[in-house]
Automatic annotation (TrEMBL), chain A:
GO terms for biological process: iron-sulfur cluster assembly. Pfam families: SUFBD_core (PF01458), SufBD_N (PF19295). Residues 139-210 form the SUF system FeS cluster assembly SufBD N-terminal domain. This is Fe-S cluster assembly protein SufB. It comes from Salinirubellus salinus.
From TrEMBL, chain B:
Residues 4-298 form the ABC transporter domain. Keywords: ATP-binding, Nucleotide-binding. GO terms for molecular function: ATP binding; ATP hydrolysis activity. InterPro entries: AAA+_ATPase (IPR003593), ABC_transporter-like_ATP-bd (IPR003439), FeS-cluster_ATPase_SufC (IPR010230), P-loop_NTPase (IPR027417). Residues 133-163 are annotated as: Disordered. Pfam families: ABC_tran (PF00005). Residues 133-151 have a biased composition (Acidic residues). The keyword Acetylation does not apply. This is ABC transporter ATP-binding protein. Signal peptide: none annotated. The keyword ATP-binding applies.
Length: 476, 304
């Protein structure tokens, strides 16, 4: 890394998140969404016929489904015009499916990741990094010992070609079908890139698997798909980071995440997302958890104009466990609508949801949650805790915790607190020497600590830094 | 030696039609001295403490709170220019007052979840040192050349060598020392600031913070309330150490003689109805313990 980049890192954190590169791509699909576009994407990716057929079916469903408009307190999506979106951009790289070596990447792509500190994390040997630039995985490195154990971690497009049997079975069939919602259907039609993780029986992946996604072109959509399959008694922690610089047009991010937690397996999915203030972030993330399996969702949602995201777990087998930890930050003009969904469909299942939100300068955060305990899911328990922290009287925070309890022998707890940043707390820290801003930042950092402690240090530092920048109002 | 000089201080609650609480307080505390401030509930003791530290809930309507500094108050290396030796604290933000050496020990300190003691205290110490530099920075001249020459010969573990911060390792050691002196368990360093602390632990923590931040004047608001006898002795020992080792001037607000058995005051003041009604030596506190406050009131109003 050159010394002026070092300088940039230390002195101008904002630049790390704000810079953008001149768009330089080998293939760019036409704006808008037609059957022709889908065929072109599929052909460019050299996909098998079955994937093309799935895309086309999803497209039909998308066209038939109405936009969600009537949820109470729902973000306004009227600006989202699919015809204005360029769904697919492939960067100019000779080797499709990702460069094998960091050095093989084009300079501007390397530079982008450099500024984001990604290779740094990689060099620290945290583990392999799969990074998606625009719509394709461009760099991927996997530790040899995983391969020996049969762990697969690759770009999703490549997985379609190299592991068609697994992908055909799991891809948008049992977990997130395109019929689930309008944006799942959209995703099914034009998905591109993402990560494929397969962990065989009894294998523990000791270090977190990491991927970083970045949207770099104006008016583009990003639709990456993440498919994680953890076979019986396996264990894996997958971490995803996302960001996008700011452009005048809106961007659309509509990702899909499917996680299969088999009997006795343990999966943690962590994400820190920071989208530009004109991005609509509309995702569908879901896990199916078998007997005695554990699913953990850890997510920090920053940035975006509007986010609608409710990671869901279906506790299918007895003794299955789900833990959700989420944090949302909404500043001026932002509406972050996040939450969690848990379906207790078997006895002795357990779930905890811990949701924290911060709103400032008129920002709006919603917690929208659903806990469903089916008839027969006896001895199940759930605990929901929502804390909202507000900076001023202009900001809003709503809690909408739906509970559908159809079984009587269950333990249900819900707790919600809403508070303004306490003047006495700020004064206490100020009296010790911290200025007003630093005092507030410290209180917020403490507030989100349950999230940061779940993340590897690089991500925790980045999350804290992003929140600092948000609080200073210096992030676009 | 620093002097805190309160002159004719009048203050009210900062809202429309806010109650008047202070009605002309005069008081002077020098570093190295221990003053006890006593008086019945509602006489304005805590309000005065908060005003000294800069609490926004009160509005000063008249009077001054001055801090006089002398050469060497911030160590031999820190030069205090002649024209920056007197500050009107009322013009300054709470953190700027802290940077000049004012410390308020709270009766009910805030509990901040998620912020470890060690992280908080190191941040506070560095913030204080940085703010102090800024306050004394020469506004007219540019010291660019001089700044370039300044270099810190520290290892990376001791923080960023460019800004003279107290680094992680260095601070850990300092904190351990101070906690040992106060007989505090090491585990406190990694607990969240005051969260789940008992009343006594919180008070001990306030004294610990004063020991780390090395103020020239510490106002301790009922630091003795809710302490059992063992803890009272620990806290008292800590307060005496502040004075003896760091030369801190202490303004000890208290209801009871009890703590004054351990922290012997040089001066005792009685506050009544928003004024310092009577001052004396340590024997005054004993009289108050025996006779209550009514005789002071009678004496004051008779002479008035």
């Amino acid at each position: 890394m050159s010394s002026d980049q070092d300088h940039l890192k230390e002195t101008d954190t904002e630049a790390r998140f704000e810079f953008k590169k001149e768009e330089k791509s080998a293939f760019k699909s036409e704006k808008g969404l037609t059957e022709e576009t889908i065929r072109v994407i599929s052909e460019d990716k050299d996909e098998p016929e079955w994937m093309l057929q799935r895309r086309l079916r999803a497209l039909k469903q998308f066209q038939q489904m109405p936009m969600p408009t009537d949820w109470p307190g729902q973000p306004d999506l009227s600006e989202v015009d699919i015809d204005e979106i360029v769904p697919y951009i492939r960067p100019d790289i000779e080797t499709r499916g990702g460069a094998e070596k960091w050095e093989d990447l084009p300079d501007e792509i390397r530079d982008t990741f450099d500024k984001l500190g990604i290779p740094e994390a990689e060099r620290n040997a945290l583990s392999g990094v799969g990074a998606q630039y625009e719509s394709e995985i461009v760099y991927q490195n996997m530790q040899e010992q995983w391969e020996e154990k049969g762990v697969i971690f690759m770009d999703m497009d490549k997985a379609v070609r190299e592991h068609p049997d697994i992908v055909q079975e799991y891809f948008m069939t049992k977990c997130v079908p395109p019929s689930d919602n309008k944006f799942a259907a959209l995703h099914g039609a034009i998905w591109s890139g993402g990560s494929f993780v397969y962990v065989p029986e009894d294998v523990t992946v000791e270090m977190p698997i990491q991927a970083y996604f970045r949207m770099n072109s104006e008016g583009m959509g990003q639709f990456e798909h993440t498919l994680i399959i953890a076979e019986e008694n396996s264990e894996v922690h997958y971490i995803e980071g996302c960001s996008a610089p700011k452009y005048s047009h809106f961007n659309l991010h509509s990702g899909g995440v499917e996680v299969f937690v088999k009997e006795g397996a343990h999966v943690q999915y962590s994400t820190v997302q920071n989208w530009s203030k004109n991005t609509y972030n509309l995702n569908t993330k879901r896990a199916i958890v078998e007997k005695d399996g554990t699913m953990e969702w850890v997510s920090g949602s920053m940035g975006s104009k509007a986010t609608m995201l409710y990671p869901a777990s279906i506790l299918k087998g007895p003794g299955a466990t789900d833990n959700h930890i989420t944090i949302a930050f909404a500043g001026e003009g932002q509406n972050i609508d996040t939450g969690a969904k848990v379906y207790h469909n078997a006895p002795n299942t357990k779930s905890t949801i811990e949701s924290k939100s911060i709103s400032k300068d008129g920002g709006r955060t919603n917690y929208r949650g659903l806990v469903h305990i089916a008839n027969g899911a006896e001895n199940s328990s759930t605990s929901v805790e929502c804390d909202a922290l507000m900076f001023d009287n202009e900001s809003t925070s709503d809690t909408m915790p739906y509970m559908e309890i159809q079984e009587s022998k269950v333990d249900v707890a819900h707790e919600a607190t809403v508070g303004k940043i306490g003047d006495e707390d700020v004064f206490y820290l100020q009296s010790r020497g911290l200025d007003d801003d630093d005092a507030k930042q410290m209180i917020v950092a403490g507030f989100i600590e349950p999230i940061t402690e779940e993340l590897p240090i690089e991500y925790a530092v980045e999350l804290n830094r992003l929140i600092e920048l948000e609080m200073e109002g210096s992030l676009g | 030696m620093a002097t805190l000089e309160i002159k004719n201080l009048h203050a009210e609650v900062a809202e429309e039609g806010g109650e008047t609480i202070l009605r002309g307080v005069d008081l002077e505390v020098k570093s190295g001295e221990i003053h006890a401030l006593m008086g019945p509930n509602g006489s304005g003791k805590s309000t005065m403490a908060k005003i000294i530290a800069g609490h926004p809930a009160y509005e000063v309507t008249d009077g001054e709170v001055l801090l006089h500094l002398e050469e060497g108050d911030f160590g031999d290396d820190f030069e205090i220019p002649e024209d920056k030796r007197t500050w009107n604290l009322l013009d300054l933000e709470p953190n700027e007052r802290a940077a000049l050496g004012i410390f308020l020990g709270f009766q009910y300190p805030a509990e901040i979840e998620g912020v470890t003691m060690v992280n908080f205290l190191r941040t506070a110490l560095n913030a204080k040192l940085e703010e102090r530099e800024e306050l004394f920075e020469d506004d007219d001249e540019t010291d660019d050349e001089e700044e370039e020459e300044v270099g810190y010969d520290t290892s990376p573990m001791e923080g960023n060598p460019d800004d003279g911060e107290v680094g992680v390792a260095e601070f850990q050691q300092l904190l351990q020392e101070k906690m040992a002196q106060l007989d505090m368990d090491e585990k406190f360093a990694h607990r969240y600031l005051n969260a789940g602390f008992s009343g006594g632990e919180k008070k001990q923590n306030e004294v610990l913070q004063a020991a780390i931040l090395e103020p020239s004047i510490a106002v301790l608001d009922e630091i003795d309330s809710g302490l059992d006898i063992d803890r009272l002795q620990d806290v008292s020992q800590g307060i005496n150490a502040l004075r003896d080792e760091q030369g801190t001037g202490i303004l000890q607000i208290t209801h009871y003689q009890r703590i004054l058995d351990y922290v012997e005051p040089d001066h005792v003041h009685v506050m009544l109805d928003g004024k310092v009604a009577k001052s004396g030596d340590a024997s005054l506190a004993e009289d108050l313990e025996d006779k209550g406050y009514d005789w002071v009131r009678e004496e004051v109003y008779e002479t008035a």
